[in-house]
Design goal:
Length: about 80
């Protein structure tokens, strides 16, 4: 058995430009051949998100307004 623990991270952001902000984080912990933990949350970017990004990610402006801010979940 492989005793290593892996954390796989996926993020969605407001775009690919320099001023991008995270709008969703998903973390999956994988150890001993199985998923041992899952964490997923939307993140309020504290600014409007383009229609293009909303369509691409299926994450609405309303859902982001109700989401926690990054500084509240960073730990």
């Amino acid at each position: 058995m492989n005793p290593r623990r892996y954390v796989i991270c996926d993020i969605e952001a407001t775009g690919l430009h320099e001023e991008k902000d995270i709008i969703e984080i998903a973390l999956i912990t994988y150890q001993d051949g199985k998923i041992t933990d899952v964490y997923e949350t939307l993140v309020n970017p504290l600014r409007p998100v383009s229609e293009f990004i909303q369509d691409l990610t299926s994450i609405s402006h309303r859902a982001l307004e109700e989401a926690p801010k990054f500084y509240d979940i960073a730990d």
